């Protein structure tokens, strides 16, 4: 029978001399009987990581020396004053680390002797990142359960309150580093950009109100929209997203949308095609891009326009007329559609008037943004945000509306939106370390 041994060695810089040698794990190499005895079990893998990490942390903690001299009594050297054990938590494992305590004999000043004081947190950077990512995609309790499965045990550091706290700390840093990270994602000037702006209503905890609106936007180059064969839905290969739940007259969503557009190559020579559902607050975000671009073409999103018509129930004899109105709009003949709507309103019973009048007002409010959708489709030009993906669905609904009993405050949803927008963009892989560090420094 053969045996194995996993050893942790601490060596000098040339690997010529061994300073210390620790057996991390050892055992028998046997013929596997089934899939459960082939290789290390999951518990053994975590145990191996635990032991290796314990040994590395022990050696690294020896290098965390305190100040040579007291910062208050500069002529006095600091002296050892025992040791202190402190906690440190990684993605799958928890550790106890021993650090030397140092004290000034003259003024009794004591240097930092815990992991929290020395590095600013008891959590590893990767654990903070994964807690934030899971919390932005699942409920906090679901995230807690996922951590328990992957760690193969319940760990207090991954309870739902800790995950919520971590997400909020990291999420609120993203706004602050948006400006700093523009240089990280430099792209050449874009000839054209597509901008989708939309909003979604979220049930609120605010007394006397049912919901509030969160705003989202997605910016990408036309060439980034590619066919996803054999699927019928296209995909965006490169994009930047922005989001905001603040009640600030669109200030934050405008700022974040401009930054997202700049990262996609916006310049004064860039032509913008903007698609919105027709809401005034969405168009106001788009209009903020006009002074810093070559031109802005505003298009009423065909998906929303088509759904407005589809959701109107009429008697069988009037459906055909409503369908003809739809095809007038499809060809960009908005005034023809309005005239036919007026005729239809006169023909149908009074109880159908309200829905048709609302449709007419919707068309009139956006008449200058109704284009020849048929021709744009023929020319393979974008005419609906549904060709790409639903911004609201990906950034808001999947996380915030999955459980109907959930209620949110604007402050509670804001860091989640910022995280989801960064993860959905090209940003997250470039900025997560900065966001984690900033959240630790702040707290």
Textual characterization of the structure:
By secondary structure, the protein is of the alpha+beta class. 42% of the residues lie in helices and 19% in strands. It has a 5-stranded mixed sheet with strand order 9-6-5-10-11. Strand 1 and strand 2 form a beta hairpin. 30% of the residues are buried.
Describe the SSE topology.
Blueprint: E1 2-11, E2 18-29, H1 42-61, E3 79-89, E4 94-103, H2 115-119, H3 125-137, H4 140-151, H5 160-177, E5 192-203, E6 211-220, E7 225-226, E8 235-236, E9 240-244, H6 251-263, E10 271-276, H7 280-287, E11 295-300, H8 302-310, H9 316-330, H10 334-347, H11 353-365, H12 373-378, H13 391-400, H14 410-424, H15 428-442
Parallel strand pairs: 5-10, 10-11
Antiparallel strand pairs: 1-2, 3-4, 5-6, 6-9, 7-8
Helix pairs in contact: 3-5, 3-14, 4-5, 5-14, 5-15, 9-10, 10-11, 13-14
